[in-house]
């Protein structure tokens, strides 16, 4: 695709046609002339039925949808449930991928023709076919709002990321609340810097003392939580930022750490404080990511051990002088305790700012990848890098260049017809036309190439790809400026924009090429930067920003990517859904490809893959050379990448990204506050724009991790892991009655003043099989209802319904009587049902299953508190003594064993088979410990990390904004 020489009258108002003297001439790259892309693939019909993993209820159902047979079941399910428009069950409902792609692509082509982007109708048709082919073959994807809205009767919102602004006035603060609410209502996210609001140590004009920004955060947090629970497709995503020189910075730093202490106290009082728990809403500041915006002056003072001034917002006067290293230590301490706050490095961010004359960059979107002017938005799209790796291991450099040209052109066209949530955002977005092309599958690409993620060679390839992508994007932007005009804000920012383009080019020239792919990529990148800067000096640029690295959560699953964003592989085993329902465990397909790239013969590849399937890691795999182990290092598992490995990868690509990088650096539970401080300091030294960490098990919402014993046979997970995820073709339950004589125990209880008796009868050696409940007088309505309920539960248990299913359904059920109980292990109950099933869980479920449900005895909670107070991890808790009476049932049953087994002895096959519903849960099964991930609010499966957010493999829901 080449740009014809021409001029235009400028960007003009939305809806008006640009009077372009010429347009783009478009050449075919992926398509064949005379053959429509749809005719090149084989199509099939499927039924999509989505269920809630926890209770089996059906969330969604649509039959006869049409997809290429190359698309996975998961990708098809996510597109059907998330992106098809129209009411289910009506003729207006979309039912084919063709309809979805046509709805979007036809809108892009039509708008492009109307605004003079193409030299002829033939060029527009080639553009349409190429875009269709790439989307059909999962080469790239637009961000979710494009699929939601383009070509529908809804507002044509195409952006997922927004930055707001708030000034030091009540009107501005109330506008902030309103604007955030509108953005959350649409399922998107926003970020804001509150540093303009005067501190609680400054005076109002009336003479009183100001409230300070932290107080106003409470209202915004409550609003986000309410809108989240009011039916949005995902949780509200937001970022709150405060400058390090704000007088209220220490209060800001401590907000979430202090609330985490409150969560622990409430949990130990019997309240449900787990992720998604009914009582978690009672604590504050849980709906936002917090970041401190640190200056170079502050970071240098930290290094030198100097002082630093906190300044008033009204006149900049020094309010207090503090020790910089001490404040930095408080930031690290808070992050160690609860993962917040992250850091944003202000000097680095603004040194790479293309529009400095229009204002500083003060904030970011919730995931920290989009950084630009206040009241602006970013339109994202991501490339699937594995599509550019040839079977011989070489990289298709030229195809990447051509693909970026098409994608950037389409993204810019979308701004021309886009709608925005507020007029201020619309004005800024149309005037500066910020784009965010990025990529996914870099982790899979490096592994398939036989390169470790944490290696100089891997970083060289990643830098080359990033530089070539952004350099090509800006070159195409300069060509578009010659056709339809530069962005409106370019004239006043020409000097600054050109300076940043030169910085990118110089950084690219400085990268050391390691390997043939990196050499080819960096050579072409230098060519693109040189050519783009020459064209830009003449035409200007169409876009003030070109690239970001987003989480690529839902769209990564849509493209069947093994890895999201800049992330390495999560683990070597993968959870795969099957046509017709069911699922299976497989070894990631990238692994055998990597082994072949490393030169292993086919019989050795099979043996190594079999070892990975059995053990979940490559250690001691037959025939695998130890020097090749790092190629298969992952984010989690037996061989996990060190924290600095993640930081160094971010540093390698940051100079070639217009915005920033969405990524959280995972740290082990054993990491110290000093380790956190070191990571934050190194991030600044290496030139990152933003950095966030997560220390394993630092939040109450994560269940207590219980690692399996090292002496456990490595093959233990195999049979259960396979059984856990195999499809059950046919199953007919059989009732197992209790013998005439059976052991039982009776517990008297009182809930909110209402007294009753619970009798639980067991099989002689196999666990709970019968429940009797006695409340009120014989013959009363309540007594009859409780008798009927007891019979129903007992029959269900005898037919094999797992006790934990009943526990998960009936705990936290709220109705009167409720309140204090006389049970020392369960001090508060939301209802009689809540108490009964918590008691049954404590008496009949093993420790690891109860830990997943957040149900502990008083002694177990006290032990956890003592360990936390001592600053230790799980090693400081005597779990064997703690759970000496905690039963462990056979997998998938409600049976009570004949002897108690401590959680530390619990083997992987003791995990309930029915609870495996995602790659994260499969990894938990193989590792024998809980992962740091929330449960999906839509379908109940455990989500997996995607950048600094999380994505659900079951339904595509994300916890972020992209």
From TrEMBL:
<feature type="domain" description="Ribonucleotide reductase class II vitamin B12-dependent N-terminal">
    <location>
        <begin position="48"/>
        <end position="138"/>
    </location>
</feature>
<comment type="function">
    <text>Catalyzes the reduction of ribonucleotides to deoxyribonucleotides. May function to provide a pool of deoxyribonucleotide precursors for DNA repair during oxygen limitation and/or for immediate growth after restoration of oxygen.</text>
</comment>
<comment type="similarity">
    <text>Belongs to the ribonucleoside diphosphate reductase class-2 family.</text>
</comment>
<feature type="region of interest" description="Disordered">
    <location>
        <begin position="888"/>
        <end position="914"/>
    </location>
</feature>
<dbReference type="InterPro" id="IPR013678">
    <property type="entry name" value="RNR_2_N"/>
</dbReference>
<dbReference type="Pfam" id="PF12637">
    <property type="entry name" value="TSCPD"/>
</dbReference>
<keyword id="KW-0560">Oxidoreductase</keyword>
<feature type="compositionally biased region" description="Polar residues">
    <location>
        <begin position="1"/>
        <end position="11"/>
    </location>
</feature>
<keyword id="KW-0846">Cobalamin</keyword>
<dbReference type="Pfam" id="PF08471">
    <property type="entry name" value="Ribonuc_red_2_N"/>
</dbReference>
<dbReference type="InterPro" id="IPR000788">
    <property type="entry name" value="RNR_lg_C"/>
</dbReference>
<keyword id="KW-1015">Disulfide bond</keyword>
<keyword id="KW-0170">Cobalt</keyword>
<feature type="region of interest" description="Disordered">
    <location>
        <begin position="1"/>
        <end position="21"/>
    </location>
</feature>
<dbReference type="InterPro" id="IPR024434">
    <property type="entry name" value="TSCPD_dom"/>
</dbReference>
<feature type="domain" description="TSCPD">
    <location>
        <begin position="739"/>
        <end position="842"/>
    </location>
</feature>
<keyword id="KW-0237">DNA synthesis</keyword>
<dbReference type="InterPro" id="IPR050862">
    <property type="entry name" value="RdRp_reductase_class-2"/>
</dbReference>
<dbReference type="Pfam" id="PF02867">
    <property type="entry name" value="Ribonuc_red_lgC"/>
</dbReference>
<feature type="domain" description="Ribonucleotide reductase large subunit C-terminal">
    <location>
        <begin position="159"/>
        <end position="694"/>
    </location>
</feature>
<keyword id="KW-0547">Nucleotide-binding</keyword>
<dbReference type="InterPro" id="IPR013344">
    <property type="entry name" value="RNR_NrdJ/NrdZ"/>
</dbReference>
<protein>
    <recommendedName>
        <fullName>Vitamin B12-dependent ribonucleotide reductase</fullName>
        <ecNumber>1.17.4.1</ecNumber>
    </recommendedName>
</protein>
